[in-house]
Amino acid sequence: VLRGAEPLHNASEVPVKRLPQALVIGAKKAGTRALLEYLRLHPGVVAAGPEPHFFDRNYHLGLDWYRELMPRSYSDQLTLEKTPAYFITPEVPRLLHQMNPEIKLLLVVRDPVTRAISDYVQASTKRPLDSFEHMALLDPRLGLINTSWAAIKIGIYAKHMERWLQVFPMRQIHLVDGHKLVSDPAKEMAKVEKFLGLPPFIRDEHFFLRGFKGTFPCIMRHGVPHCLDEKTKGRDHPDVDSKVLQRLRDFYRPFNAKFYQMVGHDFGWL
Ligand code: A3P
């Protein structure tokens, strides 16, 4: 039996819709869906399922529209949503700060080379694409990286992070290691709970590895097993030419180093 944080609200309280007090801002294809679904295990969390894209796309619809998308919550619960496009959209930090300067931000990151391949795999399910190698390089002989390709640009974390840190202090941003979210989810989630000020609840017993390639954790929610959709998460990646991989690693190395310095943590990407 999973026990943990008991709700603090009194039984007569009527739940209402609230604006988010915390957000998963990105990065796309780093494990944002997994993070949100794991957080929803916690009795102190409610979250919008679909991505609202409020600050990057739907801002003109206003805060009442945004609030309406949120599930009802009690006063002792946190409301969350995830929209990975926030991380890379220049005006978002400022707009978000206007709504709530105290908001807590969660950013999942993953080796930018693997993230780029994951992004490519997703894009290629929507329309036929050239090979990854072809798209990643501007000139195969010179090995120049195509930095105007979104799959490459999103992984230049330092560049995006710089903009966030102009608006929010680092203490309001928690970095989640997308790799550890797969290899040791309970431990990575314990850090998230602490950052969000939630009582410890999520534990190893909430996770199990099932069919689904045996690689990715599934969760037990209210005694019901739940895995992420295997058609859209945990897809197979193509084998990418090792020279191209090396070029990409060389390309990202200085940006990664800058990012580690900014956030005060070395993720150890090669
Ligand atoms: P791949 O499909 O390339 O493996 P996002 O939700 O931000 O789009 O991230 C998708 C990635 O989340 C997947 O990329 C996968 O590696 C990762 N992931 C983390 N935990 C997962 C889980 N429990 N089930 C499936 N994918 C998971």
UniProtKB/TrEMBL annotation:
Keywords: Glycoprotein, Membrane, Transferase, Transmembrane, Transmembrane helix
Gene that encodes the chain: LOC101853928
Name of the protein in its database record: Heparan sulfate glucosamine 3-O-sulfotransferase 2
Domain named Sulfotransferase: residues: 20-199
Source organism, top-level taxon: Eukaryota
